[in-house]
Amino acid sequence: MEIPTYADLAQATRRMFIRDLVLAASIGVYAHEHASRQRVRINVELAVRDEGMPNVSRAAVGADDLTRVVDYEVIVNNIRAIVTAGHIQLVETLAERLAESCLKDARIRRVLVRVEKLDVFADAAAVGVEIERRNI
Fold first, then answer.
1. Phi/psi at 104 (nearest 5 deg)?
2. For 53-87, what is each residue's pLDDT tens digit?
3. Integer Cα distance of 57 and 60 in angstroms
4. For residues 15 and 23, what is the distance between their CA atoms, to the nearest angstrom?
């Protein structure tokens, strides 16, 4: 089976993204990281199954109705809820939880999640992890 790219006409997927969402998170393995929140930047890219056939010449693409698409506000609110739910030790764990949350919507075929801790090293813009997961 061919794995679609994030926006792929042949696979009838559209690309949806949340870019540079910065939140205060309780994250880290060290004692000082348990004592205070630190900034994390989250980026999410989704390959969302498009309704109908991949025919760009059709007259109407679909109803102008929020219920027919993945609502990015729902995705962002889920991200916020996961980040604020309690202390997480690893950025990898946070990324996995975010990916799992996105993939609960069956229309989402693939998700790419990047989590970056912004204030770890004075001489680095960020450290973090990027993962990719998909619905089978």
1. -65, -25
2. 455 545 446 677 777 789 999 999 999 999 999 99
3. 9
4. 23
Residue pointed to by tokens 């960020």: 126
Report pTM: 0.86
Q: What is the DSSP string of the chain?
A: -PPP-SSBTTTTEEEEEEEEEEEEE-B-SSHHHHHS-EEEEEEEEEEEEPSS-S-TTSS----S-GGGS--HHHHHHHHHHHHHSS-BS-HHHHHHHHHHHHTTSTTEEEEEEEEEESSS-TT-S-EEEEEEEE--
Q: Which one, of 49, 43, 44, 98, lies nearest residue 69 by Cα?
A: 49
* Residue 69 φ/ψ, nearest 5 degrees: -125, 165
- Residue-wise pLDDT for 2-40, tens only, equals 555 666 666 678 899 999 999 999 999 999 999 999 999
CA dist., res. 88 & res. 129, Å (int): 14
